[in-house]
Amino acid sequence: MLKKIFIIFILLLSLVLANTQAVAQENVQADYYQARVVEIKDIEKEEVATGLFFAGESQEAKVKILEGPKKNEETVIEVNALVRNGNENKIESGEKIIVGFFEEQNSFFYVDRYRIGPIIWIFVVFLVLVIVLTKRKGFLSILGLMLSVAVVLLYLVPSIYNGANPLIVTAITILTAGIFSFYLAHGFNRRTHVALLSAYLTLILAGIIAVIFTNWAKISGGGTEETQALQFGAEQAINLKSLYLAGIMISALGVLDDITTAQSAVVEQLKKANSKLNLKELYTRSLEVGREHIASLVNTLAFAYVGSSLPLLLAFSYNNFQPWWLTLNTEILTQEIVMILVGSMALVLSVPISSFLAAKAFASKEFTEQELSQNHHHSH
């Protein structure tokens, strides 16, 4: 079983990489290479000093190309990467960076710092921690995550980019990703069946609520520069409101995985501990646990959104050109607020839904001695 899943994942990943390469070859006009900074010096640039975000000092770097047809070639490039937070953005001698090369002009230019190495190591540390602490279950959950990401990259992103309805594409993605993530992480059993069904039902209700409040608040989905840029860069016109609603649904799925499996596991353990508990008792007792779960997860979700939007909140806080209520009224903030509240409502709704379905599923369940001896404690 695991071998078949792994083969499917490799095939999906190969298609993703092939698709990424094809897009890159079609759209990119410059070649990009890794380079090592051999020597660096600061230079004065008046035109940089007049900018809002740039300091009055730039850099000139002598770099050595590390790959491609220009490998080992040295060249001098200018680096305009300094911002107002002092010297923290200065590149240093010995640092690895990314440079671009225009064949027609036979010239190199600075692109960015090289960050892939640290990202790979962070991912490796994450994998090791999960697998060491959770063994086989952790490996399967990571495999489910990778398969879900592959579905997003292979199906959801290209489909929306090519003009498909974001809501329909997202619904198919959620159905597929939910199956991968739930069953690989938690096993193919009654508890997981209940959790997955609860998550799907909750997402349907959350979707209805999101549509209602999005229309009521007149949110177009184009409140950010990224979404507005899609109108010009995509192959077909993209419905930004549908894209915004799709984003709400996808972001809610991961959190619902946690709370629905938790509630289902609580009901199962209650029934194992006391086989005389009926549907009503299982429901009410699991609901008590769920209320505590809601309190913590609502805070988690809200702070996660606030943390990701902190620079935006700071920018608006120091806006002295308009009153606070006018700032709050802007679409870019309104859509974030709606997203937080709809996600929080999804969490609240998932507890009674998953508790009831689990109670219904386990109320008449008679466990075997082997099942009673197994330990199915849920962990976050």
Written description of the protein model:
By secondary structure, this protein is of the alpha+beta class. It folds into two domains: about 80 residues, Beta Barrel (OB fold (Dihydrolipoamide Acetyltransferase, E2P)), CATH 2.40.50; about 230 residues, Up-down Bundle (Multidrug efflux transporter AcrB transmembrane fold). About 65% of the residues lie in helices and about 10% in strands. It has a five-stranded antiparallel beta sheet with strand order 3-2-1-4-5. A hairpin with a 4-residue loop joins strand 4 and strand 5. The two termini are about 25 Å apart.
Question: From N to C, what is the helix and strand string?
Answer: HEHEEEEHHHHHHHHHH
Query: What's the level 1 CATH class of the largest domain?
Result: Mainly Alpha
Return the structural class: alpha+beta
Task: Write the CATH fold name of the largest domain.
Answer: Multidrug efflux transporter AcrB transmembrane fold
How far is the first residue's CA from the last residue's CA? 25 Å
List keywords for this structure.
single chain; 380 residues; alpha+beta; OB fold (Dihydrolipoamide Acetyltransferase, E2P); Multidrug efflux transporter AcrB transmembrane fold; 2 domains; 11% strand; globular; disordered N terminus; disordered C terminus
Concise account of the structure shown:
With 380 residues, the protein is an alpha+beta fold. The chain has helices spanning 2-27, 46-49, 116-161, 166-186, 190-216, 225-233, 240-273, 279-308, 310-317, 324-328, 331-362, 369-373, and strands spanning 31-44, 57-65, 74-79, 96-102, 107-113.
